[in-house]
UniProtKB/TrEMBL annotation:
The keyword Disulfide bond does not apply. The keyword Lipoprotein does not apply. PANTHER family: PHOSPHORIBOSYLAMINOIMIDAZOLE CARBOXYLASE (PTHR11609:SF5), PURINE BIOSYNTHESIS PROTEIN 6/7, PUR6/7 (PTHR11609). It catalyses: 5-amino-1-(5-phospho-beta-D-ribosyl)imidazole + hydrogencarbonate + ATP = 5-carboxyamino-1-(5-phospho-D-ribosyl)imidazole + ADP + phosphate + 2 H(+). Pathway: Purine metabolism; IMP biosynthesis via de novo pathway; 5-amino-1-(5-phospho-D-ribosyl)imidazole-4-carboxylate from 5-amino-1-(5-phospho-D-ribosyl)imidazole (N5-CAIR route): step 1/2. Belongs to the PurK/PurT family. Keywords: ATP-binding, Ligase, Nucleotide-binding, Purine biosynthesis. ATP binds at residues 96, 141, 174-177, 182, 260-261. GO terms for molecular function: 5-(carboxyamino)imidazole ribonucleotide synthase activity. Catalyzes the ATP-dependent conversion of 5-aminoimidazole ribonucleotide (AIR) and HCO(3)(-) to N5-carboxyaminoimidazole ribonucleotide (N5-CAIR). This is N5-carboxyaminoimidazole ribonucleotide synthase.
């Protein structure tokens, strides 16, 4: 697995029962997965020679992020190394402009969008939307490299649209969608075409970062839930995805769903599956990239809630274990071995049960206590 973050750490854990020999390419020895994986190579994933040396002896290469240069992945494939997902699929998670063009081509509902060249072009794009005034606000995104709110700008005027162009990379403009909530449809697809779909979840964001995931999404109609699952499965098939695919969605006020982002790896919106599904997203990603039969994605309980644990003012979160575990013996805490910094994702908690309000309260209390925002 290229990447040594928490996704690699948890994917490695899922491979242990299968006896999978797992190797990672990590930036530093301190990365989350590098702390627990036995076979660690420290190197730069942007260097082709490093990638080739890392891939030697591997049966398959997969990823915990989308940042490996596309041309390097093509070179690995040319060397005879199975890359899953392959570069022709992964480029749609790497480049938002490519993603929007392809999804539009295959008839997937997306926000109105186009590549813009300068602030004046942004103003022209905004005006194309019609309605009252000048068409602002709009969303601007760098086509590559953004995540957790980084590389994304909410702009209200042409004057505010200057910063995204300073980096000298292409910029994608999108309409400001009038949505009621964000959803995510997680699916897994194997090389021979078997695919499974997890329940559609609601993803709640705070300051552009995923905070809470509720599985399944409350009060989502069977019709819209089924449509979201079918859409994600169709995207996986059309793009030739191998492994886990997360399709982030907007549910609009007029009852539609629009695709926001794609991720071709285990995803924050699927962390609930570790404890809430028969087969986790991590286990199914391992199965998929090795072309093993996929596991059951069904939930184990009526409701599962995942809440991210963000760093706060208390660096030693482990002192909170006594309270959290004693208060809720069913709680599961997943920590990533990261240094605690304010606002940094350092772990998550999962709770499950029969009554949503109670399950949600337990998860929020535990995450808040570990962070230090709740003291009793």
């Amino acid at each position: 697995m290229v990447g040594g973050g928490q996704l690699a750490r948890m994917t490695h854990e899922a491979g242990i029962p299968l006896g999978i020999r797992f190797k990672i390419l990590s930036d530093t020895p301190q990365d989350s997965a590098a702390q627990v994986v036995g076979d660690v190579v420290i190197g730069d994933y942007r260097d082709l020679d490093t990638l080739r040396e890392f891939a030697r002896g591997c049966d398959v290469i997969t990823f915990d992020h989308e940042h490996v240069p596309t041309e390097h992945l093509r070179a690995l494939e040319a060397d005879g190394i199975p890359v899953r997902p392959g570069p022709d699929a992964l480029v749609h998670a790497q480049d938002k402009g490519v993603m929007r063009a392809r999804l539009t081509e295959i008839g997937v509902p997306c926000p109105r969008h186009r590549i813009v060249t300068d602030p004046a072009d942004v103003a022209a794009f905004a005006a194309e939307g019609g309605g009252e005034g000048d068409g602002f606000p709009v969303i601007l995104k760098t086509v590559r490299g953004g995540y957790d709110g980084k590389g994304v700008w909410f702009v209200r005027s042409e004057a505010e649209a200057r910063d995204p162009f300073l980096a000298g990379v292409p910029v994608l403009a999108e309409e400001m969608v009038d949505f009621t909530r964000e959803l995510a449809a997680n699916v897994v697809r194997s090389p021979h075409g078997q695919a499974v779909a997890y329940p559609v979840v609601e993803s709640r964001q705070v300051d552009g970062v995923c905070d809470t995931v509720i599985a399944p999404a409350p009060e989502l109609s069977e019709e819209l839930s089924g449509a979201a699952q079918e859409l994600a499965l169709r995207i996986a098939r059309e793009l030739g995805v191998t492994g886990h695919l997360a399709v982030e969605l907007f549910e609009t006020r007029d009852g539609r769903i629009l695709v926001n982002e794609l991720a071709m790896r285990p995803h924050n919106s699927g962390h609930w599956t570790q404890d809430g599904a028969v087969t986790s997203q991590f286990a199914n990603h391992v199965r998929a990239v090795l072309d093993l039969p996929l596991g059951d994605p069904r939930p184990r309980a009526p409701w599962t809630v995942m809440v991210n644990v963000l760093g706060g003012d208390y660096p030693d979160m482990y002192q909170g274990y006594l309270h959290c575990m004693a208060r809720d013996p069913q709680l599961t805490i997943h920590m990533y071995g990261k240094d605690v910094k304010p606002g940094r994702k350092v772990g998550h908690v999962n709770t499950y049960g029969d009554e949503l309000g109670e399950v949600l309260e337990r998860a929020r209390h535990a995450a808040g206590y570990l962070r230090g925002t709740i003291v009793e």
